[in-house]
Amino acid sequence: MTAPVLLIRPMTVADLPSVQLIERASFSAPWPPQAYRQELEANRLAAYLVGVMGDEVVAYGGIWLMVDEAHVTTFAVHPRYRRRRIGECLLLALLDLSVDRHAREATLEVRLSNLAARRLYEKYGFRPVGIRPRYYSDNQEDALIMTTEPLAGAAMRERLARLREALDAAPAPSTAPDDTLSPTEPAQHAPGRDPNEGVA
Fold first, then answer.
1. Catalytic-labelled residue, pool 39, 105, 109, 141
2. Which overall architecture, per CATH, does domain 6-169 show?
3. pTM (two decimals)
4. Which of these is catalytic: 36, 48, 121, 135?
């Protein structure tokens, strides 16, 4: 029997129960279900993707396109499926989506203490550009603002092409849950909530 491959596609309303399960497993202050429905149905600035293996939604992420900037608003992988390059595939898809929507750059916030998230973002061309003091309501931790180089620039295009080639050459993510794996990929959430408290 052929193992299911990771498919990344636009999020739909039908995906929301699965998205909410991942949301609650990843964050201490999850968005309520109606927030994602409103994002899908009413927010013209928003675009959301899901990662699906077989019939199971295993990851999701989204951006807001504000003028020419793509802001990563949410990013999470189900805890049972972390450390399988799913987060990397999803992040690359979000950057591709940003390019398709003619964003000049992508940006996000991450906890200063979340070194795993920062390493992944740096790998994909994000660099620190500032601090949002006391951004996280649970412990008043500062957020590090990270922004990419110009997405259409030669350096960023070469970086993404190289990373895409490496992902394509790597073994496909496994569908068999392995709870012994420690999570290292990040989760990212929108302004006004607690982004990056979990890992994905």
1. 109
2. 3-Layer(aba) Sandwich (3.40)
3. 0.86
4. 121
